[in-house]
């Protein structure tokens, strides 16, 4: 299969590197990473270790059977516009947050929703570290069976990736949103690792954010119980206790965060009060504005 990764950063390089063990893979990203991969290949390190030689470019190729979108959520509209030039047979977001699939579907046919619990970081150009083996779940964005998702899952599995087809993606996306809405801004604002959310008062802040997400999901017709949202949050806090969340890393580095697609998306879709998500979003946006000072 011709697989295209749009956004060869941490996650995209890892997924692309793993896929390249079985498929023809093109990484689309930016220099100096792309130049380094072209020169010496992509070194995958950490939990799995190998070097692979995918095609590496800064623009999209002419065609692709399957495209994975792994840019940060604020770059999704640009990714959709760029991918429209090669019209992939199917395109799947592996990003965090809500709204990525709608944004891609405005430009592309056959868009799939995906979640990914692999962990990745990019220590240097040409290298990607797998910080944790997880699972990729794919399916139709509105739920129900999807032949395209089945084909994409088979492609991932044949490359040795733990992948499943989920016909209940809306619930899976909202449950992941509850986890990110609780953990990401709370750790970013408090300047702590994920494990610090096991205890009050931060546990209280993060779990109330997750409960609000469940209530908004229910209004949207997704049966996510508040207790399930909090249990998901607590289990990720425990499993990733030593992680610095992506938003804490972004705030630490003074770079743009995914707040709009996470807590911002909850506030935008709420028809009732979501004071914790609203407050967390306002505080993170204030930090982002402060970078310029
Ligand atoms: N890292 C992880 O472990 C996980 C991440 N995720 C999610 O996956 C998504 C990606 O995260 P992550 O990999 O960490 O982010 P990164 O910032 O590491 O990767 C995104 C990459 O896309 C590049 N990019 C953006 N726009 C373009 C463009 N128009 N053309 C070419 N390249 C482009 C960026 O380049 P530049 O930096 O120069 O802008 C960057 O290298 C996020 O939604 C995240 O929440 C989900 C699960 C795990
Ligand atoms: C699961 C979690 C919270 C792990 O850190 C994550 O997805 C992130 O940091 O963005």
UniProtKB/TrEMBL annotation:
Q: Which Pfam families match?
A: ApbA, ApbA_C
Instruction: Indicate whether NADP appears among the record's keywords.
Output: yes
Residues spanning the signal sequence: none
Which example biological process does GO assign this protein? Answer: coenzyme A biosynthetic process
Q: Which Gene Ontology molecular-function terms are recorded?
A: 2-dehydropantoate 2-reductase activity; NADP binding
Q: Where is the Ketopantoate reductase C-terminal domain?
A: 172-288
Give the record's pathway.
Answer: Cofactor biosynthesis; coenzyme A biosynthesis
Keyword vocabulary terms for this entry: Coenzyme A biosynthesis, NADP, Oxidoreductase
Q: Which residue ranges does the record assign to the Ketopantoate reductase N-terminal domain?
A: 3-142
Would you tell me the Gene Ontology cellular component terms?
Answer: cytoplasm
Q: Which domain of life is it from?
A: Archaea
Enzyme class, top EC level, equals oxidoreductase
Q: Which reaction does it catalyse?
A: (R)-pantoate + NAD(+) = 2-dehydropantoate + NADH + H(+); (R)-pantoate + NADP(+) = 2-dehydropantoate + NADPH + H(+)
Q: What is its EC number?
A: 1.1.1.169
The entry's function note states: Catalyzes the NADPH-dependent reduction of ketopantoate into pantoic acid.
Q: Which family does it belong to?
A: Belongs to the ketopantoate reductase family.
The protein depicted here goes by the name 2-dehydropantoate 2-reductase
